[in-house]
Amino acid sequence: MEVASRAAALPAGTTPAGVVLEFESDPGFELRLQSLESRGNDIELLSVTIDANNVTRAAVFVPDGKMGVLFGKLRDYADTTKHTKKGRPCNQKLAESISHIGIAVLRTLWTDSKTFPAARDAACWWEIWLRILPVSEDVVPDFCSRARLVGVMISERVLKFPDRRVVLAHGSVDQLLAIENLFDLIAELRSASIPNNEFLALPPRVQAEFVDEALARIEPPPLDAPAVCHLDTGVNRTHPLLSLALAEEHHLAADPSWSPADRHPDQHGTGMAGLALYGCLSELFNDTKPIRLMHRLESVKLLSVDRNNHPDLYGEITSQAVSRIEINAWQRHRRVFALTITADEQREGIPTSWSAAIDQICAGGEKGDQPRRLILAAAGNTLKEGRRDYPDHNILQGIEDPAQAWNAITVGAYTEKTTIQSLDYRDWHPLADRGQLSPASRTSQIWDQKRWPVKPDIVMEGGNSAIDPSGTTVADIDDLLLLTTRQSAEGALLATTGETSAATALAARYAAIIWAHYPSLWPESVRGLLIHSARWTPVMLQEFPDGFREVRLRAYGYGVPDLETALRSAGNSATQIIEDCLQPFDKGGREFRTKDMRLHRLPWPSAVLEQLGDTQVRMRITLSYFIEPSPGQRGWNDTYRYRSHGLRFDVKRPLDTDDEFLQKVTKSAWSEGQDRVNRGKDDRNWTLKENLQKKGSIHSDVWTGTAAELASAGVIAVFPVTGWWKERPHLNRWDRTARYSLIVTLETDRTDVDLYTPIKNQIDLQIETTINTD
Predict the structure, then answer these.
(1) Half-sphere exposure for 339 (CA within 13 Å, toward CB)
(2) The dihedral formed by the CA atoms of 11, 15, 20 and 21, expressed in degrees to the nearest 10
């Protein structure tokens, strides 16, 4: 046979202990797997795969001298003189389930859902699943010694199962095939999900190989793509993963006398740039798919290690940084500012010159005639020496300046990282559970609960911390952090990072991708979509149940944004974005009063909803707008409010007529100048209810009820409440116009219901009415 001739041709001492055969079925038919294995003869079923055409393939190890056992079954089937007691051919089910038999190749043992590496000479990381040999239970040392002889690098980690050992190996297909008698040892191959500490332990040369492999799969972003502009310690743009998206002319410093390079000891800005462009690099390196970048990078160095800025100047420095990039890249109109540095102080929600500058920049400057801007700000990090007392420590550590800004999206951190693989920390435990608040993330739980906005607005992955077995020492370890970009003097290209800065960079990436998909959206809408798509994890809901909604909000904001939810509608979930404006206030004689409201009649598929009857549906509403700040400390009472104006939304109740609904939201139904009024609003169906809906300058909540109830409630009013534009008319702002974005999603858990198509068909019939409440 061919197998015997191959074995005979091998040098003395290298004869394999057996051969691996590949058995293949016809499409849609199952192999008789149990008949392929014979433990008494050491014939072992190694792995089974089913491809996209529903063809089953099995890899079977057959020891030397045992080939006759397996093929004897097939010969018995072919022998017409042999039959079972029922008169059927022997081994009929086995033989007729097989369409092809051949000698296995390396690809035969590939059981991963990812594509088998195409290049034979390109090194990558593999999970090698080893057999437990009959002569020796510990196959690992044997495999490692053979692999290292041909240049394959083996990780120190070993995962043990009753009949398998798993190791990580770095090498090419050709190198694996050069391992002596490889098929005697391995059962299957998979793509390795390499932990961060393995990447960092690689020599700079091997790190560069990973980077080069990724670059070969990356399509650079268009020149006119939206950008994430980093306001940080600068960026080292010569990093090969960053230079393709960060042009030299967009690599600046707030002070032209500074170098725009990142000279921070931790290369903070460079690390944030990597996350904002790619997300965690471990996902990039552990994949083989092509990547098409849809956004670019910009950088304006805001903090220089060569010069300390007085905290009171941060607002002006930030304003100058924004102006510099807008002048240098004047053609770009879609830009997400990622502010990933904070002052080392908490202000309990009270505005500062820096946070007020952020609000003013977002709102379009003092004159209000500049472009609106989208800024994401890090919530700030807890003191490391107190993290042993997690999570109580996070409650006492308030959001840092300038993250209390009303108009910015303040980003806190949660974590999904709870697996520790490093041998140096084998007895340590993750501090936070999966889906819980990151030990680094500050909250607004100690703020004045009545006056200031809910912060953070959202949370993103910020890594975890580990605690030693004694419960006394807390450390940040690579396995629980995010892998990102760095350039060391020794040539290393990778590092780990985390905390709320990393979470902010990841959120900025989401915002830029949303803008790339929907280039005509306002900044208010992109901001709204991030919050509109956010959901609380089951752990968050369990930690703070419905009786503690405000505490949940002040720890996690509206939850974790979901990019797919922000970008897509589905059959049973449809989203509508309305961008509009109104004039909140007007002058009547000597008095100043509220002026406009907007009624948005939503294209609900009433017939579909009525047919659904008692089926539960959800209506999620998010109202996003920017206020103009007035940060002078004069009590922030009615006259000296911080906000220029406020907006609110209300939804027509099922039993209300249109006239009754108008009466409840027009001026005659509430006391002028009050925020919280009795308009007869029914809170029973809302998750957060009115008191929590009204905080800050973005309002988001979910109505849950029956489809029949919602069928006649498809009218939403957007109306103004008072602010300093009205209360201080001598400043001549009372006649200004306010923009807003209203985002509405209708959804149900029933997958057999199509809400999207009828809404899409009716969208052109949407009626929007301007009501003068004078």
Answers:
(1) 33
(2) 70
Q: What are phi and psi of 291, to 5 degrees?
A: -125, 125
Burial annotation 225-262 (CB, 10 A radius, 16+ → b, else e): bbbbbbbbbbbbbebebbebbbbeebbbbbbeebebbb
Instruction: Check: CB of residue 334 under 8 Å from CB of residue 517.
Output: no
Three-state SS string over 113-169 comes to CCCCCCCCCCCEEEEEEEECCCCCCCCHHHHHHHHHHCCCEEEEEEEEECCEEEEEE
Q: What pLDDT, on a 0 to 100 scale, did the predictor assign at position 634?
A: 65
CA 5 → CA 1, 8, 9, 15, distances in Å?
A: 6, 5, 6, 11
| 23 burial level (CB within 10 Å; 0-12, 13-18, 19+) | buried
pLDDT digits (tens, 9 = 90+) for 585-637: 998 777 888 888 899 988 887 888 888 888 888 999 999 999 999 887 666 66
pLDDT in tens, 128-164: 899 887 766 678 999 999 999 999 988 777 777 778 8
Alpha helices in 679-771 (DSSP H): 689-693, 707-711, 724-727, 756-762
Two tokens, residue 328: 């240098």
For the stretch 26-44, pLDDT in tens is 888 888 877 888 888 888 8
Residues 321 and 300: beta-carbon distance below 8 Å: yes
Is pLDDT above 90 for 227?
Answer: yes
Predicted structure pTM score = 0.82
